[in-house]
Amino acid sequence: MNGRDGRALARRKRWVGWSAAAVAALMVAASYAAVPFYSFLCRVTNFDGTPRRAVAPSSRVLAEKVAVRFDANVEPGLAWRFEPVQRTLEVKLGENALAFFRATNVSDGTLRGIASFNVFPEQTAAYFNKLQCFCFTDQELRPGEVAEFPVSFFIDPQIVDDKDTRDVRNITLSYTFHPLPTPKAGLAGQGAETTRPAPAREGSRG
What we know:
The protein has one helix at 3-45; strands at 52-53, 65-74, 80-84, 88-92, 97-105, 111-120, 128-132, 139-141, 146-155, 170-180.
């Protein structure tokens, strides 16, 4: 191999290396951008069984009830234990209800996460109204820290007027926490805000 061929081969190798590094960086960036994009899509379209965000409590309550089941998941890469404080709640249609989820950092380091959510059956999402939620907000837990997150909601009574949902009596609200990168030393408090979770309620530790 002459000198010209050797230089050409070296250039190709460098190009391949740079291309691979760029693809890896884009994949990492895309993984962290996926949750904010999902948040925007859900808020605009009720995509994938996403509840609506209500601006005021319900003023109409019916006698009919539904059982709301709560489901909690953690994406690989986030060393948290995440669970609903109550597995189910039976609520009247239009009744304002409050539920709690509990997260525990089981690692020896401070970790950050962000939660997404959906509702099943998906056709009930348009009638599942959230007044308060911890979704799509950065959360941070120190080693061993326990926090409880409230969810205030009601089921729109108009669910009984929809032929596709009038007979539904069981709804599942599911949350998934996704890992977020830990801020570098000296950069804490800069950039996007991180929400400190409310302290765990009495008796929630242990």
